[in-house]
Design goal:
- It is a single chain.
- By secondary structure, this protein is an all-alpha fold.
- It has two domains: 5-65, no CATH class; 69-189, no CATH class.
- It is 83% helix and 0% strand.
- Helix 1 (5-17) packs parallel to helix 3 (44-55) and helix 5 packs antiparallel against helix 6 (106-127).
- The radius of gyration is 24 Å and the shape is rod-shaped.
- The two termini are 33 Å apart.
């Protein structure tokens, strides 16, 4: 039996917003529910209407997939690390007199701009309702923090090789966050 027009429209709406794997999963469920209603004696139109009513608005289905997305969860966790890692680096940079380090003047400005963009991207992933936006923003935020933490560690170790305790603390905090990013990136990209 060909796919009913309502079911096809529903599947098209999901396919436009979700990755193929997830859209196909919902399409299978729709087909099963439609067949169930047909077996109960409903006509094709009534069965399709009951199926769509059972599954709810496609935008709401997409929003639920977005809410459950690994990217949204990781974005929230990474945003939560900021108030811990940031002060560690502030203390390390101040006590090490980072303004005297031999780094190009443009480097702090670039890293500051990258930090602001990364925070904005992670906030987007944390609050967006569209699955693809959540996924892309979450992945970009992971990469951004990995670059920032790696750059901060490299610069601090190169500029102040004595590794006083404030720098060691900041390096450790960034290393923990890098491990979190490394562990989270694969599920975010899937």
């Amino acid at each position: 039996m060909p796919e009913h027009r309502l079911i096809r429209q529903y599947n098209e709406a999901l396919a436009a917003e979700l990755p193929a794997r997830l859209a196909e999963e919902v399409a299978d469920g729709l087909a099963e529910a439609h067949a169930k209603y047909l077996l109960r004696g409903l006509g094709p139109d009534e069965a399709a209407q009951a199926t769509v009513a059972e599954f709810g608005d496609p935008a709401r289905v997409v929003a639920e997939f977005s809410r459950a997305s690994p990217a949204k969860k990781v974005a929230g966790r990474l945003l939560a690390t900021g108030p811990v890692v940031g002060p560690c680096w502030a203390m390390a940079l101040i006590t090490s007199r980072a303004w005297d380090w031999p780094v190009p003047a443009v480097a702090p400005a670039l890293l500051g701009a990258m930090l602001a963009v990364t925070i904005a991207v992670l906030l987007t992933a944390a609050v967006a309702r569209r699955y693809r936006v959540v996924k892309r923003a979450g992945a970009a935020g992971c990469v951004g923090l990995a670059v920032l933490d790696s750059s901060a560690i490299t610069a601090a170790v190169a500029a102040d090789p004595t590794l006083r305790w404030p720098i060691m603390l900041a390096v450790a905090a960034s290393a923990v966050r890098l491990a979190l990013v490394a562990r989270a990136l694969r599920p975010v990209l899937e």
